[in-house]
Design goal:
Shape: globular
Distance between the termini: 44 Å
Largest sheet: 4 strands, antiparallel
Order of helices and strands: EEEEHEHEHEHHH
Structural class: alpha+beta
Strand order of the largest sheet: 1-5-3-4
Strand content: 5-15%
Length: about 230
């Protein structure tokens, strides 16, 4: 994608691009929530050393650009029928697909390049937040996602989502609701004790199921009003 520039002699690993997404529409849950419930919001000046494409770069996109030459990316969004109106403040975008991928060239240092860590409220009061707070980067919160197991759609990611949601809720949720922190603890269990999940498949297969359950939660979940 970059003409072999990062395979040249003398190029250091930290110079290679860091992959993220451009939150063009101001979604509170980030530009590409399919990859997780929390995100780092980089400072605007980082855009000067970033390149962008419509869709995932591993697909070989034709719509590429920079902050100063962005028309091709906008055209790709228009051709795909993407609504480019900004989301009302605080609202989720649920952009599981069709995002604008960003490649930030050179090192990314949280202390100087990050404007905020935007977290899911299900992590309030956890060791995760304490660890992230130790970076010194300001922490913000979006509205989160919650879903009851009986609300899980059987078609969106397949029928296995319903029994998986029931088990995850039963074993890891204090109030019966699925949220990002609950799914995270389930995923950690799959890694630490794959034998406990053997009836669902191999470790990698079960982790894929948990990831797909996150997609269900991010697409159908309602805002977390518990805190």
């Amino acid at each position: 994608m970059f003409g072999g520039a990062y395979h040249a002699d003398g190029v250091r690993p930290e110079e290679r691009p860091k992959y993220g997404a451009l939150n063009l529409l101001g979604h509170a849950d980030g530009a590409a929530p399919r990859f997780g419930s929390c995100h780092v919001r980089l400072r605007a000046e980082v855009n000067r050393r970033a390149t962008f494409c419509h869709g995932d770069s591993h697909l070989g996109p034709k719509d590429v650009g920079t902050a100063d030459a962005f028309a091709s990316v906008l055209a790709g969004l228009a051709e795909a029928g993407t609504d480019v109106r900004r989301t009302p403040s605080g609202e989720h975008g649920r952009a599981l697909d069709g995002y604008v991928e960003a490649q930030v060239h050179g090192p990314v240092v949280l202390a100087t390049d990050a404007e905020a860590l935007v977290l899911d409220p299900s992590f309030r009061g956890t060791a995760t937040v304490r660890l992230l707070a130790s970076t010194g980067v300001p922490i913000e919160w979006h509205r989160g996602f919650v879903l009851a197991p009986h609300e899980v759609d059987a078609e969106f990611r397949g029928p296995v989502m319903i029994p998986l949601a029931a088990r995850v809720s039963r074993e890891y949720s204090r109030d019966g609701l699925l949220d990002a922190e609950v799914l995270g603890r389930a995923a950690a269990s799959v890694v630490r004790e794959p034998h406990a999940w053997a009836e669902w498949g191999t470790r990698d297969e079960v982790l894929q199921y948990v990831k797909q359950l996150w997609h269900v939660l991010a697409w159908f979940g309602r805002a977390d009003g518990r805190s």
